[in-house]
Amino acid sequence: MKPCVNDCSGHRPQKGDFLTADWKPDAKAALRDYLLDILKGISMYAHRARQLSVTDRQIDLFTVEALRTAISSEQLSIESVAAVLSRAAQVRDRAKKLYEWICGPFALKPESPHGSEILPIETDPQCILTQALAVDFERSFNRAQEAADLENQCVRLLGEYIARAISAQGGGECEDTAYDLIHNVLSLLADHLQRDDLTRLALIIENKKAKICDRWMDGDYSFNRGALQDTAKDSKWVT
Q: Which of 123, 142, 161 is the last residue of a domain?
């Protein structure tokens, strides 16, 4: 058995650590969120590289595959997550090197991911579950439920967008502009947006999804947090 990235035997949370009045463990939800956190870290690099006009289809395809695994309740299991994570470290390193490489010619200082998106990537099933539950436990105290629900809605809509984009393009892949949106959204979610920004983001994804069938090459798929903040104050975006 491959050893854990973290020595789980040395600091594995005990059962009693997770038993509180405010948090009840949900293994499947924890696995999903752990996998999403890893994908956010990959997309933070991939999105920034794309802003400098560099893309990598291997990174794109892995992100879509892993995201579809995360949001599929039928496919999501400790085994399916372990299978995806077995390749995630290599893909994250590839995305990081790609971004750092393209920063050179532009004389830019590369940005670094932060928070849970730079978690060590476990591959041992028991360590994956332990890490996922530990992150979920910490998040339960640091994330408002309303924001968490809106983020889940954004992820669900992104999954629906991907399914429609693949169907429109054919061949099991998306148009490159779709990968722009996917990495952009995951990168934004890594910033732990609050209610107004998440509401606006969900509407943007829904709008892009609806337009695929009518006009596939519609508009600019790129947006940023600043633009979201400019529009978030408009009451029509607030639930």
A: 142
Per DSSP, helices labelled H in the chain are 8-11, 27-51, 57-71, 78-103, 125-142, 145-169, 176-189, 195-212, 225-232
- The single-letter code of the amino acid at 238 is V
pTM equals: 0.82
Q: How far apart are CA 42 and CA 21, in angstroms?
A: 34
What's the total number of domains in the chain?
2
Question: pLDDT digit of tens for each residue in the chain (239 aa)?
Answer: 444 555 554 444 454 454 444 556 788 999 999 999 999 999 999 999 999 999 999 999 999 999 999 998 777 889 999 999 999 999 999 999 999 999 999 999 998 877 656 788 999 998 999 999 988 888 888 888 899 999 999 999 999 999 999 988 878 889 899 999 999 999 999 988 999 999 999 999 999 998 885 554 444 444 444 444 444 333 333 22
| Structural domain boundaries, residue 237 | 144-239
- In this structure, is residue 33 part of a structural domain? yes
Q: Which of 122, 142, 162 is the last residue of a domain?
A: 142
Largest CA distance in the chain: 55
- Domain membership flag for residue 151: yes
Residues 211 and 123 in one domain: no
Q: What is the distance between the alpha carbons of residues 102 and 106, in angstroms, rounded to a whole number? A: 7
Rounded Cα distance between 89 and 66, Å, is: 13
Which CATH number do you get for residue 40? 1.20.1270.20
Dihedrals phi, psi of 179, to nearest 5 degrees: -65, -35
Residue 237 inside a domain? The answer is yes
Is 10 contained in some domain?
A: no
